[in-house]
Amino acid sequence: MADKETFTALVLDQEDGAVRATIQNLPTDALPEGDVLVSVAYSSLNYKDGLAVTGRGKVVRAYPMVPGVDLAGTVQESRSSLWKPGDQVIGTGWGMGERHWGGYAQLARVKADWLVPLPEGLTLEQAMALGTAGFTAMLSVMALEEHGLAPGDREVVVTGATGGLGSVAVAILANLGYNVVGSTGKSELAGYLKNLGAREILDRSVLSAPSDRPLESGRWGGAVDTVGGDTLAGLLRTMAQGSAIAACGNAGGNELHTTVLPFILRGVSVLGIDSNYCPAERRRAAWDRLARDLPGDALQRMVHRVSLRDVPALSQDILKGELQGRVVVDIQ
């Protein structure tokens, strides 16, 4: 446990262009500025965390940095009227772990409006079993619903379905009554996805394969795309009339090679999902929906629990696509 003078954290330093991650004991006055001091109980491991900890990509803007884009814990001190000591809170995004020290530490000092209350029905550990991945999945579902998607329509496909974001999206959509298809390159995990509620498993090569046709048979009534790249291009060719894709990831690449025809002939919409700087009111709505619309048994099936010392090795694994489901980091 952290005491009043020191706390334990995973710290990233850069030496000769290489990033090094070490567990350090730091003085409390090393924490950055903020209105609220949080005793962090749990964090999680997301793709962006993997990029930060391994030094791949330009995620971290300044060193030294405490990574971790997510945190859940209890308010210790507050200079804001929004929070008081003892409040249980969730923090995701807002540049934590990139520009501002994040959740891989026993203590975090953050701005008051970066936090949301822990919803009734969720524990701190369950909140981090969801984390940014689950939060983004729910934002994706909400965006598709607002576009007109409803249960009973055509199939809804989730790409990168065995990853953290994809797994939560599959479970939420299935629980809401959608006919969910999980797209994955891991056929051996078909049983895992079916236990989450997927009715069919689609090999990822079906969507990512190149095609000389700008439009193909319109199968999908909606899509949650965590992959981007060739997979998103394949989705656009196969979306039904008036349908939408919630684009929320880029594990398959940043570039998109497509035509305008899905947009002007079928009215397909691409809904960009930004969870990092999502407004506070929508954040609270999404977390309340997660507490209500994701069955606890589904969440339990996708969770792995680790310690802070496991994070560097697992960061390599998540970038290789070798992790399924969600990783909860027990900070204390």
Please outline the helices and strands.
Elements (H helix, E strand, L loop, with lengths): L5 E10 L2 E10 L8 E10 L1 H8 L15 E9 L9 E5 L14 E4 L4 E3 L6 H23 L9 E4 L4 H12 L4 E5 L5 H7 L3 E4 L1 H4 L11 E6 L3 H10 E9 L13 H5 L3 E4 L7 H14 L2 H6 L1 E5 L3 H9 L6 E5 L2
Parallel strand pairs: 8-9, 8-11, 9-10, 11-12, 12-13, 14-15
Antiparallel strand pairs: 1-2, 3-4, 3-6, 3-15, 4-5, 5-7
Helix pairs in contact: 1-10, 2-3, 2-8
Structure in words:
With 332 residues, the protein is of the alpha/beta class. Helix content is 30%, strand content 28%. The strands form 3 sheets. Strands 3, 4, 5, 6, 7, 14 and 15 form a 7-stranded mixed sheet that branches. Strands 10-9-8-11-12-13 form a 6-stranded parallel sheet, sandwiched between helices. α3 (164-175) links the parallel β8 and β9 (180-184).
